[in-house]
Amino acid sequence: MDVLVCATQVPFMSGGLELMVDNLVDALRGSGHRAEVVSLPTAWDRERLYDAAMAWRLIPLDAELVIPVNFPAYFARHPDKVPWLAHQHRAAYDALGQPWSDFHLDGPSLDDHRQLLDWDIRALAESTRRYAISEVVARRMRRWCGLDATALYQPPPLADRITPRAGGVGDHILCPTRLEGNKRPGLFLDGVAAMRQRVPAVLAGRGSLADDLAAQVDRLGLGGRVALPGFVPDDDLVDLLRGATAVVYAPFDEDYGFVTLQAFLAGVPVVTTADAGGVLEWVEHEVTGLVTDGSPEAMGAALDRLVDDPDLAARLGRAGRARVVDLSWDHVVRTLVGGRS
Amino acid sequence: MAVLAVAATPGAAGSVAELTGLVGRGHRIVAWHHHVRPVRGRRPDAVVAADVAVLADLGDSSADLGAPVACRVTSGEDLSLARSWGVTVSFTSEPSLRPSFTGPVVWIPPDGIDLTPLPVLPLLTRARLRLAHGLPEPLVLAVDATAPPADRSTSLALASAAVVDGPLVPLALALGTPSVITPEVADRFGLEADWEVVVADDTRSADRLAAALARDDERAAALARRARRFAEEHLDLGPAVTDLRRRLGLEEPPSLIDLRLDELATPASSRLRNRADRALSLFTLEPMP
What we know:
The complex is a heterodimer. By secondary structure, chain A is of the alpha/beta class. Chain A has eleven helices and twelve strands. Chain A folds into two domains: 2-152, Rossmann fold; 172-324, Rossmann fold. Chain A has helices spanning 16-30, 49-58, 107-125, 135-145, 185-193, 210-219, 234-242, 258-265, 296-308, 310-324, 329-337; strands spanning 2-9, 34-41, 65-68, 84-85, 131-132, 150-151, 172-176, 201-204, 226-230, 244-248, 270-273, 289-292. In chain A, helix 5 links the parallel strand 7 (172-176) and strand 8. In chain A, helix 5 (185-193) crosses helix 9 (296-308). Helices cover 41% and strands 13% of the residues of chain B. Chains A and B meet through helix 2, helix 3 and helix 4 of A and helix 5, helix 10, helix 12 and helix 13 of B.
């Protein structure tokens, strides 16, 4: 069948969503469908936020099925619209009133917030079926919009290349993440500094906090233990994952979190925090990883425990891998297409 | 600004007063005086007739008047008379006429309210506002019709859930407030238990069910959404008003973008309508010389 994947384009930016869209289109084509991406640019400031939503209402989408993946692409108008949502516009939802959101509780802002939620509900209610990339995203839709959605999980990037290393867990602590505030890479450094064991650690990734984190490493006296390689190519990332004793991934209220799934595919347990959102759909305390309160002491103690007890680390890692190893794009495509050819 | 005249036989004007106010919003509304033409120095641009009996005052047929007429009808006989006179559109709140719509007849919900000034405040947003204003959390209320009108609206707009008195049910539904009502009221409005509302047999269980609803935000949000949709589909005067305004020439025919904004129930006075109008105004076609 002819399928259009509808996505929002933010010019000059590329990240996890673009990767997900590319993978979905590849998977649709691999299943014998004709698939294309339709993307429209969007600005995220409140003044212009609705323009792209209106544009989506007006454009013709001649296909048998459309799959919008984020705000405002789900304003697309089509008789068979099946959203698979990575996110709504979080600044107007759970981030309402937060310093980094331009939606607040004052009059004009509140009017815009109400309007956006009302539009969202109507546009999403038009759907034939609704899916979200995680239970966190689905729950947010249920709580804010009163609309049901089903979590539909995808395999992470590099899934076909990440395997456990032979001979048990590795010898370093790893945190692969974008170096941005919502990912909280500083918690990783604080946790490593609080460890009793002096094992090497790697904070891999790039982002706006890179300089601050380098300063934090110096301040904590971690210069000889923590490597900050910046961006690492795929091959290096696979090696880092396979050679880790534990992966730390502690973002705030993450929508999904590929890092967790990649660690599990490598048979490595994940240490996280109780407020990490979608990460907790995978990390079950004492079963597939360790969930902490996010304090340096708790994070350090959790990491020491895994370093001290490699059997525990291996057992948690195996359990994690068992949870993710069967995730497949075939399943995603079959679910979204609904059994049609 | 157009002139909208209201024509009524004695005692009938009240039956169309609220509707005429909404249909004539932004225009000049005057009473029809058949002895004095044109009305206050100007022919009316459109007429609302409160009953078929007044049509004779307007002329022998619509051709005499030269302006579109919307006429209230309450029976099949009225409808035939209105059609034979040549009214532009009839409107009715008579349920027995509703299934027989075959021509230009507009349905006016009998318990109808204007939803335009009653936007929904999402339940989780209410919680943040309550926190900001030091109000109790959750806020579970029993709201009855003895409260002053402004207090009713404010209470229902901010509540986590409410036990609602029969006359206030349309308002509670419109505001998307998770509501507990009696079985009799549910029957009267055609509301489904545990779909749009929660139904309780007595006061004690009503209070208990409202408190439970306030603690279950996913269920409350689903009920709130369906309650508002029920109000839009069964109680809202807005679609009928827009239809009448367009048929009477009091509102421009909708552009494509208007239709799309209508689909999303975007209020006429919203910032987004204005923004769309501004964008489109750049492309207004001038007649060729």
